[in-house]
Description:
Layout: H1 3-31, H2 37-65
Helix pairs in contact: 1-2
Amino acid sequence: MSTQSSIHFYLNWAKERIDEMDATLASLESKVSEVHADARVKANQVLTDLRKKRDDFRATVKKQRKPTRPRGSKRRQD
């Protein structure tokens, strides 16, 4: 498997996981109003935590997508 193919596989996998997280959050958000008042605070906290984990994962994927210099290449001095 070429490096380019491996990268595409990883990026597609990551996008699918982010899409799953978004769908789960949307489903849970729609159910919060049905929860009793005492549990609603906890449910909102869980949603906040899930959003943060999703955003952290998205940031990690974005960081990994940035092209890096090949090993052994030297940085050009201007």
